[in-house]
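Example 3.2
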Amino acid sequence: MAEAWLNYSCPDDFEAHSAGLEPGTINPLVVEIMKEVGIDLSQNKTQAVFDVWRTGKLFQYVITVCSEGEAKGCPIFAGITTRLHWPFPDPSQVTGTHEEKLQEVRKIRDEIRQKVQEWCEAVCVPQTSLMPE
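Structure, written as tokens:
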């Protein structure tokens, strides 16, 4: 979600790439709640941090978003970069009925959107504003 919000908020200043320790599938709850705000992630693919690192690309910023409880499992990206850590709950760990899970993932989505918006306003001039709630 952070990648999507950053690419939406500051497309002229940044090109965000998302990666984790192991590639997998995008959480269907995340796909569903992002679609609610007009962002379609259904065709996005996941990738491993090592695969991104192997490309040799240089990154001005590396932002990790894993929760504090998962901090030991947070990916580390080698190289000269500014590292930021924005801990958010893991959407795959929410529990309850489908509707309760959607509500929790919406909260996470909105927290990430707010953090990205604040950061973009601090480091770049956003070309578009984030969608209202």
